[in-house]
From TrEMBL, chain A:
Natural source organism: Oceanobacillus arenosus
TM region positions: 21-47, 59-81, 102-135, 155-176, 183-202, 222-240
Keyword Membrane annotated: yes
Superkingdom of source: Bacteria
Keyword list, A-Z: Membrane, Transmembrane, Transmembrane helix
Protein name as it appears in the record: Uncharacterized protein
TrEMBL record, chain B:
Keyword ATP-binding appears in the UniProt entry: yes
Name this protein carries in UniProt: ABC transporter
Segments forming domain ABC transporter: 4-229
UniProt keyword Nucleotide-binding, yes or no: yes
Length: 248, 296
């Protein structure tokens, strides 16, 4: 019987196709999460009590931070779930090795991030439409009716970058917890400890990290920072898990 | 051509040596039975051969390559056991379809026919199958994938008698039509001995022997007779097992190595055959005496 030779690329492509089918639920949960977040946003946040020249002013702000926060949480949780024992064993029932499995998982997370990013940003416009048509408001401020496609596109790309980064961090943490059964319990404490220690030793480092990622306004450095960090996380995850045995 | 070559293969699991300096080779297109007691290291060996686990020491080569984490091995060696897991978001027919995309030699027609013969429902979910049905389904994947190295680890777990015999027959027919290297681990040697060409007997992680099944059937004889006669006859011989049947009647299993069988018969000893499965049990018995001695 002659041997079947399959390149890494072929196996990864087949696995990705398999995973999109098997993780169909990831996309339906995305829809669910965003609908819930939208419903929470429809109420808006009411501010009142500003009085100018005897004129009392009440205003309501509608924001999609809910949707964005929920979508980020969604990718983080799914990235961790992908690294659990059951999911790993499912992937190894057919042709696979650790490298191909990791690469197809990362690719899947990127695909999911793209879906999540596009829908999260577009749902912001959906919210405006809902508020415009269904909520009884007197005056709509700060909303134009024409959005330049370039701006929308920028928003989507930025959101995708956030999601890919968060997904890669989740994936890395998930892989680390697979190394020892105590780690799922210990890791959160260890992480919190490290962060607290960091803040104690170098005050302001939290802010610095936040600024490093979120204050970047130039497109290319932004992409470089986010994609670069994600690549590092994925690479470390691949390195760590390359020695793991399956179906222990 | 040798499909599998192991040299001093050792697997350390925590403090226990699951495999200990194991050396053997398996030729292409043979059916080998991997026999041994519980915990003898059968599953460990198969998982290492399938590339799922990593060897601690020694060399292991499958198709001349190191199997661990190797795509060539993953594509050409399938390991089937009752722990196989599939995503529960896929139906059984989805799983067969996916398997077909991954395995180059996949025979969709065979898979479909077996699937219908064992009356599976295409929309069922693997997780909800009963133990025997799960084994049957996994067996279909093992057969239809036609991997050059096919390994079944306790394939008949939970199967009823009729499915078991169907399985053995299906395996043999498919093997004859598409010869490949097959390893079956089982506790029921008597059920599979007609199928096997070779037997690899493991005992506590070590190789006890690796023999063609025909030699194994001639490996030892049973001597039944008056105790002193049997003792006399088996003196200076390798006695594998002895049991006192009555006060003066003894049954001994003795290695058939230039035994003076005619002389034994003249002494009134009854010479009987020892089946391969009985022999394997006797050979790998850890303690003297039986379960009865525990309750004495």
């Amino acid at each position: 019987m002659s041997l079947n030779r399959m390149g890494l690329g072929t196996v990864v492509a087949k696995q990705l196709q398999y995973k999109i089918k098997a993780y169909y639920g990831v996309f339906s949960s995305l829809v669910l999460v965003q609908v819930i977040a939208l419903l929470l946003s429809v109420g808006g946040s009411v501010f009142s009590g500003t009085t100018i020249y005897g004129l009392s002013l009440d205003y309501t702000t509608y924001m999609t931070t809910n949707v964005i926060a929920f979508t980020i949480l969604w990718i983080f949780i799914h990235a961790i779930i992908m690294t659990t024992k059951t999911e790993r064993e499912n992937s190894f029932s057919f042709v696979s090795n650790q490298l191909s499995n990791n690469i197809s998982n990362c690719t899947f997370l990127i695909v999911a991030s793209i879906a999540g990013g596009i829908t999260a940003i577009l749902s912001g416009y959906l919210l405006r439409v809902i508020v415009y048509f269904f909520i009884d408001i007197d005056l709509l401020i700060g909303t134009e009716f024409y959005y330049p496609p370039g701006e929308v596109f920028q928003g989507i790309v930025a959101m995708i970058c956030y999601l890919i980064l968060i997904g890669s961090v989740g994936y890395l943490l998930g892989v680390i917890t697979q190394l020892h059964r105590m780690l799922p319990v210990l890791l959160p404490f260890v992480l919190a400890g490290i962060l607290i220690a960091l803040e104690r030793i170098f005050p302001g480092s939290f802010m610095a990290i936040g600024e490093y990622y979120f204050q970047e306004t130039n497109v290319f450095p932004f992409l470089f920072k986010f994609i670069g960090s994600a690549v590092i996380c994925f690479a470390v995850a691949i390195l760590i898990s390359s020695r793991l045995e399956v179906r222990k | 051509m040798n499909v599998i070559e192991c040299e001093g293969l050792t697997k350390q699991q925590w403090r226990l040596k699951a495999l200990d300096e194991l050396s053997f080779t398996i030729k292409e297109n043979t059916i080998t039975g991997l026999i041994g007691r519980n915990g003898a290291g059968k599953t460990t060996l198969l998982k290492i051969l399938a590339g799922l686990w990593q060897e601690t020491n020694g060399t292991v080569r499958v198709f001349s390559e190191r199997p661990f984490n190797n795509l060539l091995i993953s594509a050409n060696a399938i390991y089937v056991d009752d722990q196989m897991q599939f995503s529960n978001r896929l139906t059984l027919s989805d799983i067969l379809h996916e398997a077909g995309r991954f395995y180059g030699n996949w025979d969709a027609e065979l898979a479909r026919r077996l699937f219908n013969y064992f009356s599976f429902h295409p929309k069922q979910v693997h997780m909800h199958l009963s133990k025997g049905k799960k084994s049957t389904f996994n067996m279909i994947i093992g057969l239809a994938s036609r991997c050059a190295l096919t390994m079944f680890d306790e394939p008949t777990t939970g199967m009823d008698a009729s499915v078991r015999s169907d399985f053995y027959r299906a395996l043999l027919k498919d093997y004859l039509a598409y010869p490949r290297t097959i390893i079956i681990s089982s506790h029921h040697l008597e059920e599979i001995e007609d199928l096997l060409e070779d037997v690899l007997l493991l005992d506590q992680g070590r190789k006890y022997f690796h023999l063609p099944i025909d030699e194994l059937k001639e490996y030892a004889v049973g001597l039944t007779g008056r105790t002193e006669m049997v003792m006399q006859c088996s003196a200076n011989q390798e006695v594998i097992h002895t049991r006192q049947i009555r006060d003066d009647l003894t049954y001994s299993v003795v290695k058939n190595d230039n035994l003076p069988l005619n002389k034994a018969r003249q002494l009134g000893i009854e010479v009987s055959k020892v089946s391969a499965s009985e022999l394997c049990v006797f050979l790998t018995k850890k303690t003297k005496g039986g379960i009865d001695d525990v309750f004495k």
